Amino acid sequence: MRQNISGNSPYEPIIGFSRAVRVGNQVFVSGTGPVGADDADAATQTKHILAAAATILERAGSSLEHVVRTRLFLANTEEWEAIGRAHGEVFGRILPASSMVGARLLNPKWHVEIELDAIIPDGKND
């Protein structure tokens, strides 16, 4: 069974996407930018995104501790360490599979955009 989860972005209907999609015991979180923290530094933007991801994962029945993959898109690859350290604060014990890729992001103020894949723990698969 598929469950589309909205993040209430005004761009969802225009572009045709959901903030997250849950299928069975898997949750796929769309690329998430630091909306609301546009003027923050790279590390703060990363933390802001991961907090938003935690909220959407919770709505899907999962959590950051159940993330199995992250994809980080960096506007400036020279900021990899600041972004990586902020990522590591959350995932240092979880150790999901992860990628960092240099990319031109939609908002020129953004340093990073992140996608996540997670699972639903056993016993929560409604």
Q: Assign the CATH topology.
A: 60s Ribosomal Protein L30, Chain: A
Mean pLDDT: 94
Count of distinct structural domains: 1
Number of helices: 3
The topology string of helices and strands comes to: EHEEHEHEE
Number of strands: 6
Q: Could you tell me the strand content as a percent range?
A: 25-35%
Strand line-up of the largest beta sheet: 1-2-3-6-4-5
CATH class: Alpha Beta
Structural class: alpha+beta
Principal-axis shape equals globular
Question: How can the largest sheet be summarized?
Answer: 6 strands, mixed
* Radius of gyration using CA atoms only: 14 Å
Oligomeric state of shown chains: single chain
Range of helix content: 25-40%
Q: In CATH, what is the homologous superfamily?
A: RutC-like
Topology, element by element:
Elements: E1 2-5, H1 12-16, E2 20-23, E3 26-32, H2 42-60, E4 67-74, H3 80-91, E5 97-102, E6 112-119
Parallel strand pairs: 4-5
Antiparallel strand pairs: 1-2, 2-3, 3-6, 4-6
Helix pairs in contact: 2-3
